[in-house]
């Protein structure tokens, strides 16, 4: 009989997941599933709540991604009320979001994924993490920790607190920025920009250029990509239209409120995550060699779908990136390179916004009244396109909530990537520690946030309890 290899937990990701690799009688990989073993359920227990509470509630979906949910919810609530927020409020929202992107992208590249390519090959898994990285590169890790603190402090100055913010409200923002704060934030943004430039140069020299020949000669998962672009086709994290680049080169661009015309959602009974897919494909197939309807989001997707980046330093890096990788970038590892280019854009954008003295204008909020309506709020979260879709009754109480998170968009691709990697590293039923880590690396490239992504659409919460003996063997399974 075949055998099962289980990786649990998947390390250095946000949230909880396990990988189950099924081998056939010949020791070959016959199936691989990335199973999410937590459930959040925000789409259900938010029903009946006043829509204006959503920007405060949904930050609790995740302590790593609170700003993404905060702003997507605020934008969805704006749309429900039919209000155009003041320009200054929009600038402050984008400023806070830029700081969030800086610390989030640096967190993943250095602290979560970094040990895979900055520690020596074969490093024991017990120290193949931030502790091992700190031992090998102590000064670098100190600098990273400091600048992440600076970026977090920026959001604290803007919002009053860095985690679980409550300042973006329907109609705008609840507080303005003083001139003294603008100057302080401008200095901090300059520090972030300087460090991100260093990080990108460091990563290209120590990592990307060394691995590029191997990347170019290795097999890739070829999919479509989804991301937000401005009206001019430029990279934008906060607002714009959604652009779906298909595998055949065709491109569809649409308003975020029309996403249901282009994206369908599929569920499986072995995970608490949904599987969004390209609706025009007619179905979703996660065949590792010929996937159908699969697209990807996140940093690499955004660089693939945009025409350009509106800040000079990041645009130069985008040109160099495209020159090196050629065409549409498909290799998973390139997510890391794209992530640092985006961090550079975020830092440049923060500096731009803070050099605008108009950002201290005190008109930051319009009044709103409860009403029946539908609102879709979309931002580009660090981990991919984030969709909040709300519907309310005449009293402004929620009657329907749908969330599609960046990691959820990537769910099918993550499972396929894990399958393909498992097939490469497991031979004759044998897999060593290095091979197991490569399966995890395939998942980590997407920087998944599983706390954000666990939402089911069928209203059923399937619970299974595995009873194991002293040897770790499953002796009984309870549940539906």
From TrEMBL:
Taxonomic superkingdom: Bacteria
Annotated binding of Ni(2+), by residue: 65, 449
Keyword annotations from UniProtKB, A to Z: Iron, Magnesium, Metal-binding, Nickel, Oxidoreductase
The keyword Magnesium is assigned to this record: yes
Cofactors that this protein relies on: Ni(2+); Fe cation
A Pfam match: NiFeSe_Hases
Protein residues bound to Mg(2+): 43, 62, 403, 455
GO MF term list: nickel cation binding; oxidoreductase activity
Keyword ATP-binding found: no
Residues reported in the UniProt entry to bind Fe cation: 65, 452
Family that this chain belongs to: Belongs to the [NiFe]/[NiFeSe] hydrogenase large subunit family.
Protein name: F420-non-reducing hydrogenase large subunit
Species name: Desulforamulus aeronauticus DSM 10349
């Amino acid at each position: 009989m075949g055998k099962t290899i289980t990786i649990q937990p998947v390390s250095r990701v946000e949230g909880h997941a396990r990988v189950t690799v099924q081998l056939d009688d010949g020791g070959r990989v016959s199936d691989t599933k990335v199973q999410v073993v937590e459930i959040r359920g925000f789409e259900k227990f938010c029903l009946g709540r006043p829509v204006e509470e959503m920007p405060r509630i949904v930050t609790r979906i995740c302590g790593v991604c609170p700003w993404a949910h905060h702003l997507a919810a605020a934008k969805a609530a704006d749309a429900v009320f039919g209000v155009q927020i003041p320009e200054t409020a929009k600038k402050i929202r984008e400023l806070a979001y830029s700081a969030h992107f800086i610390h989030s992208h640096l967190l993943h590249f250095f602290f979560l994924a970094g040990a895979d390519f900055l520690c020596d090959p074969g490093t024991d898994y017990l120290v193949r993490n931030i502790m091992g990285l700190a031992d090998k590169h102590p000064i670098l890790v100190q600098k990273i920790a400091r600048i992440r603190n600076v970026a977090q402090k920026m959001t604290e100055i803007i919002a009053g607190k860095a985690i679980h913010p409550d300042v973006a409200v329907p109609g705008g923002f609840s507080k303005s920025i003083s001139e003294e704060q603008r100057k302080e934030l401008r200095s901090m943004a300059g520090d972030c920009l300087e460090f991100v430039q260093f990080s990108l140069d460091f990563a290209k020299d120590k990592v990307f250029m060394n691995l590029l020949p191997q990347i170019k000669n290795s097999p890739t998962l070829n999919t479509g990509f989804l991301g937000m672009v401005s009206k001019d086709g430029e990279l934008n994290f906060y607002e714009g239209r959604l652009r779906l680049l298909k595998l055949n080169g065709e491109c569809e661009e649409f308003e975020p409120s029309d996403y249901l015309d282009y994206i369908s959602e599929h569920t499986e009974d072995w995970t608490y995550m949904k599987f969004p897919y390209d609706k025009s494909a007619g179905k979703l197939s996660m065949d590792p060699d010929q996937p159908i309807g699969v697209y990807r989001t996140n940093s690499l997707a955004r660089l693939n779908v945009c025409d350009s980046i509106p800040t000079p330093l990041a645009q130069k890096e985008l040109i160099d990136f495209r020159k090196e990788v050629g065409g549409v970038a498909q290799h998973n590892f390139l997510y890391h390179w794209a992530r640092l280019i985006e961090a550079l854009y975020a830092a440049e954008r923060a500096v731009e916004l803070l050099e605008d003295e108009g950002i201290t204008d005190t008109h930051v909020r319009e009044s709103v009244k409860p009403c029946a309506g539908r609102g879709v709020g979309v931002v580009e979260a660090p981990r991919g396109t984030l969709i909040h879709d709300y519907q309310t009754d005449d009293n402004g109480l929620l009657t329907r909530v749908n969330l599609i998170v960046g990691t959820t968009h990537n769910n099918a691709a993550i499972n396929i990537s894990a399958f393909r990697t498992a097939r490469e590293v497991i031979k004759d039923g044998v897999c060593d520690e290095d091979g197991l880590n490569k399966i995890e690396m395939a998942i980590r490239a997407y920087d998944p946030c599983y706390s954000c992504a666990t939402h089911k659409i069928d209203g059923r919460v399937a619970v299974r309890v595995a009873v194991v003996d002293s040897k770790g063997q499953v002796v009984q399974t309870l549940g539906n």
